[in-house]
Amino acid sequence: MIASYFQNSEVSMTKDAYFEMCEALGTEPIDSEIPIDMGDFPQEVQDAFNLYYQLRDNWDTMGGSYLGKDTTSLFNFFDLYETEKPDKLFIISLIQHMDYIRGKMINDKMNAIKKPSH
């Protein structure tokens, strides 16, 4: 679900836009194609996304590759939001998963742009 959310957010496809598109085309919505909105996730996952987006991106300045989120401030956020230890472990796990997915998407896109066309 997280990968689908990132993919949909890249193309700005929301549930409302999808339903409008289906209506305009005269087609029935297909459950598996309905975009995932933030509200579809449990609150804990929404909280992890909110923290994820507050973390700074790290880039390889020479090669232009995405290196991942800078998590050095994560525990400051945990203190600020008074996050309990079990929640911290869950959020760290989710953020690592999110960053893996997003990093792969970004780097795949960058590599596709860099490839010379024949």
Describe the structure.
Helices cover 58% and strands 8% of the residues. Strands 1-2 form a two-stranded antiparallel sheet. The protein folds into 2 domains: 1-40, no CATH class; 41-118, no CATH class. Helix 1 (2-10) crosses helix 5 (85-114) and helix 3 (43-54) crosses helix 5. The N and C termini lie far apart (36 Å). It has 5 helices and 2 strands. It has 118 residues and is mainly alpha-helical.
Structural class: mainly alpha
Overall pLDDT metric? 90
- Helical content (DSSP H or I, runs of 4+): 55-70%
The number of E-state strands comes to 2
Largest sheet features? 2 strands, antiparallel
What would you report as the Rg, rounded to the nearest angstrom?
A: 17 Å
Straight-line N-to-C gap: 36 Å
Strand fraction equals: 5-15%
Biggest sheet strand line-up: 1-2
Listing every helix as H and every strand as E from the N terminus to the C terminus, the arrangement reads HHHEEHH
Instruction: Give the number of helices.
Output: 5
| Number of domain modules | 2
Which geometry do the CA atoms define? flat
Describe what is shown at a glance:
With 118 residues, the chain is mainly alpha-helical. The chain contains five helices and two strands, in the order αααββαα.
Helix-strand blueprint:
Blueprint: H1 2-10, H2 15-25, H3 43-54, E1 56-59, E2 66-70, H4 74-80, H5 85-114
Helix pairs in contact: 1-5, 3-5
Search tags:
118 residues, mainly alpha, 5 helices
